[in-house]
Specification:
- It is a single chain.
- This protein is mainly beta and 118 residues long.
- 0% of the residues lie in helices and 55% in strands.
- The protein has no helices and eleven strands.
- The protein has strands at residues 3-7, 10-13, 18-25, 32-39, 46-51, 57-59, 67-72, 77-82, 91-99, 105-108, 112-117.
- The strands form two sheets. Strands 2, 4, 5, 6, 9, 10 and 11 form a seven-stranded mixed beta sheet that branches. It has a four-stranded antiparallel beta sheet with strand order 1-3-8-7, with no helix packed on it.
- The termini are far apart.
- The mean pLDDT is 96.
Length: 118
């Protein structure tokens, strides 16, 4: 059984940084890529960043160079480094693994809360 477990959320002041981690337990016998999503209060879930089948990363327009995704395949872990955080980045952040070709999410983490104060 595959499970994704996030950590690293918390409260930070505007301009600060956080690093989220997501550890995968279990094996996925298919080509799945890491992605991070977020859901702000009253808003739909949106893609923060996703790794494509070519290994490249596609970021949401709102990221504007502030966030970086990385992965450690040996540890089955993905990271999301978030710098220069803004109040509007406050959200629940979810890691996910999705089919690299179809982008269909197969597995979700439970979410971790990020709160940015002014």
């Amino acid at each position: 059984q595959v499970q994704l477990q996030e950590s690293g959320g918390g409260s930070v002041q505007s301009g600060g940084s956080l690093r989220l981690s997501c550890v995968q337990s279990g094996y996925i016998y298919a080509s799945y890529c890491w992605a991070w999503y977020r859901q702000r209060p009253g808003k739909q879930r949106e893609t923060v960043v996703a790794i494509g089948s070519d290994g490249g990363s596609i970021y949401g327009d709102f990221v504007k160079g502030r966030f970086t995704i990385s992965e450690d395949n040996a540890k089955k872990t993905a990271y999301l480094q978030m710098n220069n955080l803004k109040v509007e980045d406050s959200a629940t952040y979810y890691c996910a693994k999705r089919d690299c070709a179809s982008y269909t999410v197969g597995y979700w983490g439970q979410g971790t809360q990020v709160t940015v104060s002014s």
